[in-house]
């Protein structure tokens, strides 16, 4: 029988100090039993000799130092996993909240997982179609990649996340595809939006949804992404599925990390965030990837809102170091009515070259991608000159590029939240836009491709 301790020394908010404890380890789960028989879950945050600091998952109201008792469970937090998780909604600690029956687990897995051995990693090289032209055509997502979306307060990253979750698919294969969606620190309204959005389109049948609300405890917010990644690892490496993990909002997760660090009176780092935040984020992000000898894969899209639209803020800054690129949303494009407002020029997918070309997307993909980037960049410069010097100061070819830039934003980038474009449609649309320019300007595309595609009616 587990030892019970009646040695609670101090309660400070969600933190409880217990003395005279033996054999307890970091991250171990415990239960505090109140005088009236109620129980409160907790997790070990710090072990100092025989003193243990635990954090409650629920309120500390009603805990009496002399009458309450603590016992530890001898294990870290686990998630009961099963193929039946698909189509279900869970809270941040793995409890069913969709009104359906409890999951009968095939096994239980430690949510902290283990880092993937770099030697066991297989290099990402297969295309994942999101149905969004600005991503598929220009910043391609590759199976096993970590590609974050950098958003900001007030921008429609929730709608973009839901759209990717609904539309994402693996092309040209019969292999099973699933989405694990983790929402952290969101409102009831956002939670309802995500759930209804997936149900209306039938995407819920292949989705596992973890929801942590804004009024849930900070310690639960820390466990939510780990729950999601544990479910993803089970589906990918035990059930041989290709899994896309979408996590929103990483900023809420990092704020919870800062809150817990401040409660523990740790020395703060940049902007008050703990100095180990880089390590903590890396432990999550690096659980994505492919493994030699495993058919399944985990691809990750973490979404974060940059405080004050600042790319140098610690959260986007550290995320950019760990991941393979970033998709950046633009407030200027959003104000001009572009949906989704993806700013393609500063966005980058470092692995896009590995997932495109003949046999994956189409042979002309790389060439047209480079040409679209170059033409759009020159068009933006022409429009800036037009603002400063006036339209009369521009040459005829500059005016054509300016027109191209406007058409590119209106037709290619802006496609709405309901349009699902296949990669062939995206590539054909790119050629339609390139025909605005004279053939002599298309210097990044081989003549053979121009003969095949540019001259086509």
UniProtKB/TrEMBL annotation:
<comment type="function">
    <text>Produces ATP from ADP in the presence of a proton gradient across the membrane. The V-type beta chain is a regulatory subunit.</text>
</comment>
<comment type="similarity">
    <text>Belongs to the ATPase alpha/beta chains family.</text>
</comment>
<feature type="domain" description="ATP synthase A/B type C-terminal">
    <location>
        <begin position="355"/>
        <end position="454"/>
    </location>
</feature>
<keyword id="KW-0406">Ion transport</keyword>
<dbReference type="InterPro" id="IPR022879">
    <property type="entry name" value="V-ATPase_su_B/beta"/>
</dbReference>
<keyword id="KW-0472">Membrane</keyword>
<feature type="domain" description="ATPase F1/V1/A1 complex alpha/beta subunit N-terminal">
    <location>
        <begin position="8"/>
        <end position="74"/>
    </location>
</feature>
<keyword id="KW-0066">ATP synthesis</keyword>
<dbReference type="InterPro" id="IPR055190">
    <property type="entry name" value="ATP-synt_VA_C"/>
</dbReference>
<dbReference type="Pfam" id="PF22919">
    <property type="entry name" value="ATP-synt_VA_C"/>
</dbReference>
<dbReference type="InterPro" id="IPR004100">
    <property type="entry name" value="ATPase_F1/V1/A1_a/bsu_N"/>
</dbReference>
<dbReference type="GO" id="GO:0005524">
    <property type="term" value="F:ATP binding"/>
</dbReference>
<dbReference type="GO" id="GO:0042777">
    <property type="term" value="P:proton motive force-driven plasma membrane ATP synthesis"/>
</dbReference>
<dbReference type="InterPro" id="IPR020003">
    <property type="entry name" value="ATPase_a/bsu_AS"/>
</dbReference>
<dbReference type="InterPro" id="IPR027417">
    <property type="entry name" value="P-loop_NTPase"/>
</dbReference>
<keyword id="KW-1003">Cell membrane</keyword>
<dbReference type="Pfam" id="PF02874">
    <property type="entry name" value="ATP-synt_ab_N"/>
</dbReference>
<dbReference type="GO" id="GO:0045259">
    <property type="term" value="C:proton-transporting ATP synthase complex"/>
</dbReference>
<dbReference type="Pfam" id="PF00006">
    <property type="entry name" value="ATP-synt_ab"/>
</dbReference>
<dbReference type="InterPro" id="IPR000194">
    <property type="entry name" value="ATPase_F1/V1/A1_a/bsu_nucl-bd"/>
</dbReference>
<feature type="domain" description="ATPase F1/V1/A1 complex alpha/beta subunit nucleotide-binding">
    <location>
        <begin position="131"/>
        <end position="349"/>
    </location>
</feature>
<keyword id="KW-0375">Hydrogen ion transport</keyword>
<protein>
    <recommendedName>
        <fullName>V-type ATP synthase beta chain</fullName>
    </recommendedName>
</protein>
<dbReference type="GO" id="GO:0046933">
    <property type="term" value="F:proton-transporting ATP synthase activity, rotational mechanism"/>
</dbReference>
<keyword id="KW-0813">Transport</keyword>
<keyword id="KW-0139">CF(1)</keyword>
């Amino acid at each position: 029988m587990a030892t019970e301790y009646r040695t609670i020394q101090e309660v400070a908010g969600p933190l409880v100090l217990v003395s005279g404890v033996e054999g307890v380890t970091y991250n171990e789960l415990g239960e505090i039993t109140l005088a009236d028989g109620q129980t409160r879950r907790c997790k070990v945050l710090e072990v100092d000799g025989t003193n243990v600091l635990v954090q409650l998952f629920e309120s500390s109201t009603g805990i009496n130092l002399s009458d309450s008792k603590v016992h530890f469970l001898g294990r870290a937090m686990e998630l009961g996993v099963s193929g039946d998780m698909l189509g279900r909604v869970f809270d941040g600690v793995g409890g069913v909240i969709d009104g359906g029956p409890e999951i009968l687990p095939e096994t239980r897995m430690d949510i902290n997982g283990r880092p993937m051995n770099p030697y066991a990693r297989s290099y990402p090289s297969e295309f994942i179609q999101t149905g969004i032209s600005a991503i598929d055509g220009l910043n391609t997502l590759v199976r096993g990649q970590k590609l974050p979306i950098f958003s900001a307060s007030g921008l429609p990253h929730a709608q973009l996340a839901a759209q990717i979750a609904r539309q994402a698919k693996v092309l040209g294969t019969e292999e099973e595809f699933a989405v694990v969606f983790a929402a952290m620190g969101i409102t009831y309204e956002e939670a309802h939006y995500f759930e209804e959005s997936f149900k209306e389109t039938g995407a819920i049948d292949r989705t596992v949804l973890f929801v942590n609300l804004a009024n849930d405890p900070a310690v639960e917010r820390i466990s939510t992404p780990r729950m999601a990644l544990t479910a993803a690892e089970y589906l990918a490496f035990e059930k041989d599925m290709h899994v896309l993990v979408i996590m929103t909002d990483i900023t809420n997760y990092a704020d919870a990390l800062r809150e817990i660090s401040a409660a523990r009176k740790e020395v703060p780092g940049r902007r008050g965030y703990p100095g180990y935040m880089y390590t903590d984020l890396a432990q999550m992000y690096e659980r994505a990837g492919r493994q030699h000898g495993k058919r399944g894969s985990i691809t990750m899209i973490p979404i974060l809102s940059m405080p004050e639209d600042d790319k140098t803020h610690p959260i986007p800054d550290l995320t950019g170091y760990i991941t393979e690129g970033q998709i950046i949303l633009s407030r200027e494009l959003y104000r001009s009515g572009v949906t989704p407002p993806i700013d393609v020029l500063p966005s980058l997918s470092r692995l896009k070259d590995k997932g495109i070309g003949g046999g994956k997307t189409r042979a002309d993909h790389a060439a047209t991608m480079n040409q679209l980037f170059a033409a759009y960049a020159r068009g933006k410069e022409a429009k800036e000159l037009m603002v400063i010097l006036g339209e009369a100061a521009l040459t005829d070819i500059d005016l054509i590029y300016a027109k191209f830039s406007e058409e590119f934003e209106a037709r290619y980038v802006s496609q709405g939240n309901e349009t699902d474009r296949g990669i062939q449609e995206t590539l054909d649309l790119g050629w339609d836009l390139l025909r605005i320019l004279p053939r002599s300007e298309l210097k990044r595309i081989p003549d053979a491709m121009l003969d095949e595609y540019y001259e086509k009616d």
